[in-house]
Every structure is written in C-alpha cells, then in structure tokens.
C-alpha cells in the first residue's frame, strides 16, 4: 500500500484511512483509532496532516461535541476512489490465490504475532 500511495504523495495509512472513511457514514475519530489500532495522539497527528493536505475535514459530532466526525473532502474523493479500487483489487488477488481456510490461518497467525509483540488486535468487520 505504501508503494501505491507514494505516487500520490501519501502514505499507505493515509490511503487506508481515506478508503475507510470514504466508504462509511458518520465516521468518528475514535472509529479510525479502533479500526487501525492506533492511539488517539497518532490518529490526531495523522488526521491533522491529512487536513493540511485537504484530504479530510473534521467536524464536531452533533451527538457528542467531544467527538469529531471525519469526512473525505471533495478534492480527495478521486484519491479515495483509487484507494478503494486498489484495496478491492488486492483483496480479489488474495481471494484468487488463497482458500478461505488459508486466509483464516494467515489472519490468525498475524493476530498472534501482533499480540506476542505487545500489540492488541481486533476483528475487522469487513
């Protein structure tokens, strides 16, 4: 993802965040923190950089002013679509190459590796 994102002057994480928020509604900063297993401070810095690049906007949530809703800017929408297409193509390639059993095993092994190295994992919903 980093190699693909580099051509747009972005990081793989930024492209992944664009995909994540661009394909959902009412994404809160805490949703990004959970999805990408990053600390609040890391998410804040990343999103601030993305705001400076006119990729995202953050607005107070109408339900909780302490929370920020994050959206893709209209200028970044083409990048978000490219990111989503790239991720879909990569997932299709994985699906073609590995059986669902193999994919489950790889996922399980990666989760264990992360946990063994002091990280925490969560099950992705997509």
From TrEMBL:
InterPro entries: HTH_MarR-typ, WH-like_DNA-bd_sf, WH_DNA-bd_sf. The keyword Nucleotide-binding does not apply. The keyword Nucleotide-binding does not apply. Gene3D superfamilies: Winged helix-like DNA-binding domain superfamily/Winged helix DNA-binding domain. One of its GO terms (molecular function) is DNA binding. Transmembrane segments: none annotated. It comes from the Bacteria. Residues 1-115 form the HTH marR-type domain. Keywords: DNA-binding, Transcription, Transcription regulation. This is HTH marR-type domain-containing protein. It comes from Lacticaseibacillus pantheris DSM 15945 = JCM 12539 = NBRC 106106.
């Amino acid at each position: 993802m980093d190699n693909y994102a580099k051509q747009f002057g972005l990081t793989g994480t930024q492209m992944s965040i664009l995909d994540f928020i661009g394909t959902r509604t009412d994404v809160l900063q805490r949703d990004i923190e959970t999805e990408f297993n990053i600390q609040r401070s890391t998410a804040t810095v990343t999103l601030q950089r993305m705001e400076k690049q006119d990729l995202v906007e953050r607005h107070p949530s109408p339900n909780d002013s302490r929370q920020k809703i994050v959206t893709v800017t209209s200028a970044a929408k083409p990048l978000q679509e490219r990111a989503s297409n790239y991720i879909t193509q990569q997932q299709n390639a994985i699906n073609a190459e590995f059986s669902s059993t193999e994919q489950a095993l790889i996922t399980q092994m990666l989760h264990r590796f992360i946990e063994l190295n002091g990280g925490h994992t969560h099950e992705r919903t997509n």
